[in-house]
Structures are given as structure tokens and as C-alpha cells.
Design a protein that fits this description.
The complex is a heterodimer of chains A (341) and B (392). Chain A has 341 residues and is α+β, with helices and mostly antiparallel strands. Chain A is built from 8 helices and 13 strands. Chain A starts with 19 loop residues before the first helix and ends in a 13-residue tail after the last strand. Chain B is of the alpha/beta class. Chain B has 3 domains: 5-63 and 175-252, 3-Layer(aba) Sandwich (Rossmann fold), CATH 3.40.50.11750; 67-173 and 262-318, Rossmann fold, CATH 3.40.50; 331-379, no CATH class. Classes of the chains: A alpha+beta (341), B alpha/beta (392). Chain A binds chain B through residues 169, 191-192, 244, 246, 248, 250, 256, 259-260, 263, 268, 308, 310-312, 314, 316, 318-328, 330, 333-334, and chain B through 1, 4, 8, 10, 13-14, 17, 44-51, 96, 118-120, 123, 229, 352-354, 369, 372-377, 380, 382-385, 387-388, 391.
Chain lengths: 341, 392
Amino acid sequence: MKRLDFKSGTVEMVHGGGGRAMAQLISELFAAEFSNDFLNQGNDGAILPPVKGRLVMATDSHVVSPLFFPGGDIGSLSVHGTINDVAMNGAKPLYLSAGFILEEGFPLADLQRIVRSMANAAKEAGVPIVTGDTKVVEKGKGDGVFISTTGVGVVFDGVECSGSSVKPGDKILLSGSIGDHGVAILSQRESLGFESEIVSDTQSLHDLVGVMIQAVPNVRCLRDPTRGGVANTLNEIAQQSEVGICLYEKNIAIKSQVAAACEFLGLDPLYVANEGKLLAICPPEQADLLLEVMRSHSKGQDAAIIGEVLADEHHFVQMVTQFGGRRMVDWLNGEQLPRIC
Amino acid sequence: MKYVDEFRDGELAQKLAQDIKNAANPNRHYHLMEFCGGHTHAIFRYGLPGLLPSNVELIHGPGCPVCVLPMARLDMAMALAKSENVILCTYGDMLRVPGSGRTSLLKIKAQGCDVRMLYSPADALLIAQQNPDREVVFFAIGFETTTPPTAVVIQQAQKLGLKNFSVFCNHVLTPAAMHAILATRDAEEPLKLDGFIGPAHVSTLIGSKPYEIFPKQYGTPVVIAGFEPLDVLQAILMLIKQLNAGKSEIENEFTRAVTVDGNQKAKSITDDVFELRDTFEWRGLGFVEKSALKINEKYAEFDAENKFQEIFTAYTESMKSVPKDNKACECPSILRGVKKPNDCKLFDNPCTPDNPLGSCMVSSEGACAAYYQYGRFLNSSVNVIDAVEVNG
């Protein structure tokens, strides 16, 4: 059989048909790039060694458009996204699975670029992709490629991160500047036609979480503010924990380019997606220590205490504005941007 | 951010707020209407109501193009989108506005109609060029600010000789609406209105001259203000000073962008393409004479109302028996500033931004949506500023 043409070849229906062509795509692309002991077992699933502690499982599907954007692509995003979802449970991510839905006619060169980017992201994070699946849909029935990833991790005894365990008086910490990912994606939209140097913040956060949990094992809640941004994530937590939240706008970092783009496009950066930032909520007496630990890690250099938890039967998220007034920071309604992750 | 941060300075805001407190006469009430949704949005986003004394009340006017568009016009746009071979292009705000029978452009898009969201009307021209076999209609809405871009694409369409492009024009005029508001003063619901915070962007186009009539004819002062929060505070202070002195004048706070005569070039482009309609329906204000524009004879071939006359007529006929706005919806009174969003029985339950029953709840510039999104807590017992001060 002739080797796959990664220069000018395209995905064909036979690549999802279960026959030789599919086996070839798996062996010459996926197995070659993702290679690890578990995947190389070559079975329908991966048999994994026993672990000590409770298991955490999280899944995430990725449909971002465009597929390639400044700072990343759908491949790296699909690895980071799920690793972060596992990590936000206070867990150490161990393994990933990857499911691909490919559209007939999609260039193999782009697919290879995406798969390599996934392999690099997984390698960098130290979390192998141990099993996977590929399906092909007819041209016009997909949008190039969709990727679903699932992650398994382990959470150690004594760590209880949950959106429902936040209490009045707790402090809210944010690991860095907001809105980078959403604006980086938006800058690539053809219809908007603006150029910027903003790059997505897509990155895995489990290493940052690792040092945070070690220093402050009783962190009450960890969340990565992806779709809907910081505003939506905090509203979810306020609802789950039946509390109110107050933010201090002046402590929330926004890069000036991101702020300018949001201004120009009429977006509120609090609602813009992030893919490499986390929110942490901890008891007030632990806040300074947690902040110090975060700031000493490269992925949390710009961390800040951005607010606190209040008793409020309405479960409102409010903000003291930089201007000195106060306002609500409500749930996102509708959609600020289409298909950002 | 240069040229922006200067107008959002918290310390200056505190000083201005203090000046307003000092200037406001505690023995009287000040009812000031910000006409524009852009001001409404800024007022809530920066938390201005909390900086004002309780006798200075802001009334949120009808300057939100999505909110004032009557349901019948939206229904007409949907009729177009539903007809075969049509691509309907519109600004994003319009997509979720509820039309008759609780449908919306977004809902009919999900059912298969070709509705596209644009950032610029120029994109509609491009779509028309890329789809020569389809009829592309731009659903144009907005005040004087969005009118020149619509005019430009119509001129371009003529130059390009496009046969498959047309505009469903719903452009409306600010001063006419201000007249209508003031004219309802003696109606059943008395309007409490002492002064206008005049439009920012609209005024860059039309200049300050068209507002001169309001102090003269109605004794209502107008202060034109920019959309930044300090602009708004400054305008409030200027209005209070005028009212205290018994004056009624047109003042321009937004001198960095607004001149007396406005943008001549934009005006001449608009005049080339559009003419005044005899009358036009506004949600909340009813039919207002000479308050909107239509495409003139010279560009009649690009007027969707000509091109698709049959569809419009058939649709209007078929809609006669369909119930219109929810009767309990207070949008009309809210748009005239007679009622506040939370005076409406539907506010917050069941009418929310996710489930809007009235148009004021749809656009982020609508009074109800701004109030819901930013101001709902005003009735809450938890005052974060006090709480934060207590907690250090």
C-alpha cells in the first residue's frame, strides 16, 4: 500500500470505513505521533495500571473556528482543555483519550499539523493519549475536524475542590490576565479584519494546580474560566454554593491590547473566554499563602486576589468598578462569540 | 488605553459625584433622560446610579434602535428571510428580538432560513457578489450613526450594477423621537422630564443645531455628552446647574467630537440616497411624523420594499389575526421614561435576557436588559461597597 500523502492528500470516506485505509491512517498518523506503551497495545481500549486515590474523569469536545489561531490550534486546545478540567478537581491528570470527527476532503497536511500539536501538548504535560477513535463524515457535514478528548486523573486524600463548598468570607484568586484566548480567536475572523499581536493563553494548568494543592490542600474551589469567561464561572459558583460574590475591578488584569480590542468590538472582557487561566477560592486566612505560591509559578505570575465571597440570598455577582460605582456581573446571555473552543 | 482611560478616571469621578451632590438642591427632584442606549449602557456598566444623590434620577430613553423597531417591521424582515432564495443580512442585535408568535430571526435561522449576522453592511455587498443567483437583502436598522454606511453600500451597489442586492430600510431620526416624547407630556401618563442628556455618536453626525428647538419650544435643556462615564457625570452636573439657574439651553459637553453643523460629508451621502417618510411606527411612541428615512427614487431598485412588495403585502394580510406584543409588557411606557423596568410585572419573571418578551430586554442597550444585567442588585440588601469597606 502506498504511504499516505501528507503533502497534498485529503481525508476520504474510506479513512473512517474500518478497512485497510483506516488502519493505515491510524498507524501512519495517530499511532506514530501519539506513540506510548498503552496506545501501542493496539487494543480497542487501553488497560491501565491501578492507582491510589479517587479517580476523576472529565470530557470536552472542541469545535473551534478557525482551527489554527495565534498561540495554538484545535489540537493543543483539545489536550489543554481536558487536562485543565481534570486538574480543576484538584486532581493529577494521568491519561487522555481522543476522538476525531473528520470531514471528507480535509487536507491531511492540516490533520498532521493538528495531531502533532496534540502530541506535543500531551508530551509537554506528561499526560499520554492512550486510546482514540476516528470517524469520517461526508463533505459539508462537518467543519474540517472536531476533536473530543476525555481525561482520567487521580485526586489525593484530603483534597475536596467543589463549586458547592464556597463560604462567605472566602477570597477569590485569578491566575493572570483575562480575555486573551477569545480575542485571539476573534482577531482571526475574516469578517472582522483587524490585526493584533494577541495570542491565545491556551496551556495546561495541572502543574500550577499541583503546587497550589500542595501548599493549600483545603482550596475550596478551582475553575478554569473558559466559555462565558470569569463572569459566567463565578455566577455558576455563586449559584452552586448559594452565596454572593464581590469583585474588585481594579485587581483584574487585562492586557492593554485585549482591552482595546474588547472596547472596539463592544465586548466585556469578563465574558471573554480563557484557556490557560484559573480561578481559585480559598479560606481568607490561606489567601496570602496561595497568592504567593501562584505568583512563584510561571503560569501564575500575574495572579491577584480579585474578590471575595459574601452572604447574599440572591446569589448575585457584583463588582466595585474601577470608576467607584458598583454593578452586577450577570450570567452571560446569548453568545458573545461563536465557536471559540 | 489612551483617549479612553482619561474618561474613566475613578478619582475624577468621585470629585464630580461630590460636585453633583453639592449642586443638587435637596428640595427638588431632577428627572434627566439619557436618550441613547449607549449612555444607558455606560451608566449601568460603570455603576453611576450609586454615585448620584437620590433626588437625581436618570430616565432611560428610547435611543436603542432594536428596542424601538415595531414588531410589524421585524415580521416583514422574517417574511423576507422565509421566502425562497433570499439571504437576509442583519446586525447581531436583531437576531434574538421576538417577533409575532414568539419567533425570532435566530429561531427561523435554526429552521433553515438563510439569516446572516454582519458587522458591517459592506459584508452584505460581498455576499451579494459571491451569490449572484440569490437575492441578498440587508435589514438596515439604526439612528443617524448607522445611516451613512447603509447609504454608501447602496451607492456602491449601483456603481457595481448589482441586481441581486437590496436594503430593507428602517433608519430612524433622533430629534423626531425627542419631539414625540416631549409632546406626550400631557397625556394620561404624565412624563417627568427636566432635561436631556443628548446623544453622543448621533450628534457627531447631525451636530448640535437640531437640538436647539427643545430648549426654545419646550423649555427643556439638552446637554450633548460623550459615551464615557465621566462625560455622563459632567453632563448631569451641567444640566443640574442649568435647572438651578432656571435656564434652558443647548450645551455641548462632547466638544471633542461634536460640532454645531455635524459631519457634512456623511450628511450629503445620506441626502443622496434617502428621503423622509411621512410617518413611521416606533415601538413605544406609536406613529411619529417625519421620523424615519426611506430609499429615494434614484436608488429605488435597491429598495426591498419595492422589490418584494408582494411578499410584504401577503404577509401583512396573513398577520392581521396574530396576537402582537404581550399586553402586560411595559416597553412602551419604559421607552418613554414613564415607567422603570422593575415597574413591569413581567420583569425578571418571565421576561429575562434569555427569554425576552419585550424588545427592551433584548439589546444590551435596552433599558430593561441593562437594568437586569447591571442594576438588578439595586433592590438587594447586600451593598458590596459597604461590605467591602467592612471587610477591609
